[in-house]
Specification:
The chain contains 8 helices and no strands. It is mainly alpha-helical. The two termini are 13 Å apart.
């Protein structure tokens, strides 16, 4: 049954990724991300429960919000202006949203630690954007080193807390994420807006993969919470 369940969840991830409307953060994000397969039965007679749907949807929602507000924060840093502070505060709130989403599954302490790691990642992203704008190579090198160290810590925490998540796979996902964010930052700084939009689309798609992978691991690790 474990292998059947794992196969089903993998298929669900692919279905979610292929579904229309998943790259946009405009409008009612929750409605756009909501899967339409809850309660359906596949050839193995396994039903996707509302509780399983909930974590998939919640993690996708906060993941997409993080992508959107990261772009907004980078843009605000580059352009300056009065909105920078409020936008950054809104971006940092996503780390708390992720933590609160995971409390029912990981517990308050573990979810809080994970949220703190995500917040550190976001703050370092902002440092990198600032150093890139200022052309401060020393600050850029320092922040970049801490950025990768933090992503290693996030991947390690995910793997030790949810052993069904591969350490190498999660590390590769996080590395791709920060590499794409670096690319997005440079494109925004150079006013190459068409390329930056394409990169943001790629970040959104990759964020969906990361969210689905995390949800899949939690469902497999704590089946008693979903059935």
């Amino acid at each position: 049954m474990f292998h059947v369940k794992k196969a089903l969840l993998t298929v669900l991830a692919l279905l979610f990724i292929a579904a229309p409307g998943f790259g946009s953060v405009a409008g009612n994000l929750t409605a756009e991300l909501e899967p339409v397969i809850v309660g359906q039965i596949n050839q193995t007679d396994v039903v996707v429960t509302p509780v399983e749907e909930s974590i998939w949807l919640q993690l996708r929602t906060v993941g997409q919000e993080k992508v959107f507000w990261t772009r907004m924060a980078i843009t605000a840093i580059i352009q300056g202006g009065g909105e920078k502070g409020p936008v950054i505060n809104r971006l940092l709130r996503t780390s708390k949203d992720i933590s609160e989403t995971l409390i029912p599954y990981l517990g308050k302490e573990a979810a809080g630690k994970y949220g703190a790691l995500i917040e550190e990642n976001l703050n370092t992203t902002l440092e990198l954007a600032t150093a890139t704008k200022d052309g401060n190579q020393t600050a850029l090198k320092n922040a970049n080193s801490r950025w990768y160290k933090n992503t290693d810590e996030i991947a390690f925490f995910e793997n030790t807390t949810i052993p069904s998540l591969s350490l190498n796979d999660r590390k590769a996902m996080w590395y791709e994420h920060i590499n794409l964010t670096t690319k997005e930052t440079n494109e925004l700084l150079n006013k190459d807006y068409t390329a930056s939009i394409d990169t943001t689309d790629r970040i959104e798609e990759q964020a969906n993969l990361m969210s689905d992978s995390l949800a899949n691991g939690i469902i497999l690790e704590f089946p008693e919470k979903f059935h």
